Amino acid sequence: MDFLTILQILDSTVRLATPLLLACLAGLYSERAGVFDIGLEGKMLVAAFFAAALAYSSGSVWVGLVAGVAASMVLAALHGLASITFRGNQLISGVAINFLAAGLAVVIAQTWFAQGGRTPQLPSDARFGNIVLPGAESTIRGIAQQGPLGQIYSELISGHSILVYLSLALVPLTWWVLYRTRFGLRLRAVGENPAAVDTAGISVVGLRYAAVMIAGILCGIAGAYLSTALSAGFVKDMSAGRGFIALAALIFAKWRPWYALSACLLFGFFDAVGNRYQNIQLGEFIVPVQFMQALPYILVVIVLAGLVGKAIPPRAGGEPYVKER
Amino acid sequence: MDKMPKWADVVLIPLISVVLALLVSGLVVAIIGESPLRAMQIMLRGAFGSAYGWGYTLYYATNFIFTGLAVAVAFHARLFNIGGEGQAALGGLGVAVILLGVDWPHWSLALAAAMGFSMLFAAAWAAVPAYLQAKRGSHIVITTIMFNYIASALLVYLLVNVFRVEGSMAPESASFAPTTHLPSAADFAGGLGFRGSTPLNISIFLALIACGLVWLLIWRTRLGYEIRSFGQSETAAVYAGINPTKIILVSMLISGALAGLMAVNVVMGEAERLVLDFTEGAGFVGIAVALMGRSHPVGVILAALLFGALYQGGAELQFEMPAISREMIVVIQALVILFTGALDNMVRLPVQRVFLTLKRRRDRAAPPHPAE
Question: A101 FRET partner, CA 20 to 30 A, in B6, B89, B272, B357?
Answer without folding.
Answer: B89
